[in-house]
């Protein structure tokens, strides 16, 4: 059963992340907690499938409320897969996107890109750093090191970000290797699963740190439980001018 093999190999990949990336996950949680404790907002960005990570953190039950998802329709698949793939390789597009959002010095920007080789994620990281933000990248070092950068500098996302968390995905993202398959000869993507695991681990760590700092964590609760809407409206009201997509 390929499904069983895939899940078993996925468990091994998650264990690899646990063993090799936990220190960086803890560091990310700490940096985010310090920023939120000072009234800051966490900004999150990705293109293509990676934009789902921005939505994973934004307005998520059990998650942090002060999360500003940078959601650019032209870089999402609902606006056209081939169009999105083309646009994420265009230099200087990131600054145009970021200008539409309220990002402030000392806050945190998280950028998600499996390959870390395309112009827009790289320049989003550069632009955020130029504006005084601390940058965290979640990427695959395996994939990046196997592919040439598409940025004019020749650099990759992992070479620019202040903190890099490796999702440990294989080249091409797919996991289960089988004879007769095209491309890398593998099937079953991993980065969405491992990326969400990494993100929620960071959130949990940030909440722990906020409690240690004596701060009440600005958490969203499920709106489908009694009192959920009231709680969320109260907390969201503190950040309504900072979160563009509310």
TrEMBL record:
<dbReference type="Pfam" id="PF13580">
    <property type="entry name" value="SIS_2"/>
</dbReference>
<dbReference type="InterPro" id="IPR050099">
    <property type="entry name" value="SIS_GmhA/DiaA_subfam"/>
</dbReference>
<keyword id="KW-0413">Isomerase</keyword>
<dbReference type="InterPro" id="IPR001347">
    <property type="entry name" value="SIS_dom"/>
</dbReference>
<dbReference type="InterPro" id="IPR046348">
    <property type="entry name" value="SIS_dom_sf"/>
</dbReference>
<dbReference type="GO" id="GO:1901135">
    <property type="term" value="P:carbohydrate derivative metabolic process"/>
</dbReference>
<dbReference type="InterPro" id="IPR035472">
    <property type="entry name" value="RpiR-like_SIS"/>
</dbReference>
<dbReference type="GO" id="GO:0016853">
    <property type="term" value="F:isomerase activity"/>
</dbReference>
<protein>
    <submittedName>
        <fullName>Sugar isomerase domain-containing protein</fullName>
    </submittedName>
</protein>
<dbReference type="GO" id="GO:0097367">
    <property type="term" value="F:carbohydrate derivative binding"/>
</dbReference>
<feature type="domain" description="SIS">
    <location>
        <begin position="32"/>
        <end position="217"/>
    </location>
</feature>
């Amino acid at each position: 059963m390929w499904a069983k093999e895939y899940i078993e190999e996925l468990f091994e990949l998650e264990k690899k992340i646990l063993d090799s990336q936990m220190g960086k996950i803890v560091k990310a949680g700490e940096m985010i907690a310090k920023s939120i404790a000072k009234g800051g907002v966490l900004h999150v960005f990705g293109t293509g499938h990676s934009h789902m990570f921005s939505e994973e953190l934004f307005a998520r039950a059990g998650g942090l409320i002060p999360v500003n998802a940078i959601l650019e329709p032209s870089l999402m698949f609902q606006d056209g897969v081939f169009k999105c793939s083309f646009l994420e390789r265009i230099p200087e597009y990131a600054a145009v996107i970021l200008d539409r959002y309220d990002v402030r010095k000392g806050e945190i920007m998280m950028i998600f890109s499996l390959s870390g080789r395309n112009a827009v994620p790289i320049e989003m990281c550069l632009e955020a750093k130029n504006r005084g933000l601390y940058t965290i990248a979640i990427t695959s070092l395996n994939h990046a090191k196997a592919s040439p950068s598409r940025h004019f500098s020749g650099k990759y996302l992992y070479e620019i970000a202040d903190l890099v968390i490796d999702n440990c995905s294989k080249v091409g993202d797919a996991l289960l290797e089988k004879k007769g398959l095209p491309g890398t000869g593998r099937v079953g993507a991993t980065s969405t699963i491992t990326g969400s695991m990494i993100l929620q681990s960071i959130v949990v760590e940030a909440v722990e740190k906020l409690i240690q700092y004596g701060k009440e964590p600005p958490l969203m609760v499920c709106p489908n439980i009694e009192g959920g809407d009231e709680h969320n409206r109260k907390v969201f009201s503190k950040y309504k001018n900072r979160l563009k997509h509310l």
